[in-house]
């Protein structure tokens, strides 16, 4: 057992060194590929430059003129498009400004109308409270009037019943009417 444990200990440190060497080899191969790619690009650029230098000076000027003309055309196209976009944006801005003003005026009108309605509601509520108070007062007055009427009616009934008991009613022959003697209410 002790010898096996020792062999594991020795194997462990060697394993990372193998991985490190593999990593280094892979990195070296990658650097070689990159170097080869750079050399190929250099050779290609040297060929283009040699071809470019061997051409006639007029050809180079024509080529540069052509490239400048293409760039100029592109810039002018972009400028026209930008001008058109600015014009469209300005038109949209004016349209939105007009729409915003309309909404502003509508909002102001609606706010004024809302405030007017709120004021009217306050006045109607106040009037309603006053009418309710008047109604309560009239109801109380009506109750008192009914009580007074009952009391007066009761007093009158008592008074007339006393008078009727003390006096007799005279019937005149030949007339259909009854006459009360000394009865002021008849």
TrEMBL record:
Coiled coil: 79-134
Annotated region (Disordered), positions in chain: 1-23
Keywords in alphabetical order: Coiled coil
InterPro entries: DLG5_N
Pfam family, one: Takusan
Domain Disks large homolog 5 N-terminal residue range list: 10-90
PANTHER family given in the database record: ENSMUSG00000072602 PROTEIN-RELATED (PTHR21558:SF40), SPEER/SPETEX (PTHR21558)
Protein name in the entry: Predicted gene 5800
Organism: Mus spicilegus (Mound-building mouse)
């Amino acid at each position: 057992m002790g010898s096996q444990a020792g062999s594991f200990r020795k194997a462990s440190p060697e394993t990372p060194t193998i991985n490190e060497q593999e990593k280094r080899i892979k990195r070296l191969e990658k650097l070689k590929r990159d170097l080869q790619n750079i050399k190929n690009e250099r050779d290609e650029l040297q060929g283009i430059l040699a071809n470019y230098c061997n051409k006639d000076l007029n050809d180079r000027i024509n080529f540069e003129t052509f490239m400048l003309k293409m760039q100029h055309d592109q810039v002018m196209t972009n400028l026209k498009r930008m001008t058109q976009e600015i014009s469209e944006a300005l038109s949209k801005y004016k349209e939105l400004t007009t729409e915003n003003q309309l909404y502003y005026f509508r909002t102001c009108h609606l706010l004024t109308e809302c405030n007017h309605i709120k004021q009217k509601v306050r006045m109607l509520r106040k009037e309603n409270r006053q009418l309710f108070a008047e109604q309560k007062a009239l109801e109380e007055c009506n109750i008192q009037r009914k009580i007074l009427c009952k009391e007066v009616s009761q007093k009158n009934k008592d008074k007339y019943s006393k008078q009727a008991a003390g006096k007799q009613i005279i019937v005149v022959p030949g007339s259909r009417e009854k006459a009360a003697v000394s009865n002021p209410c008849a």
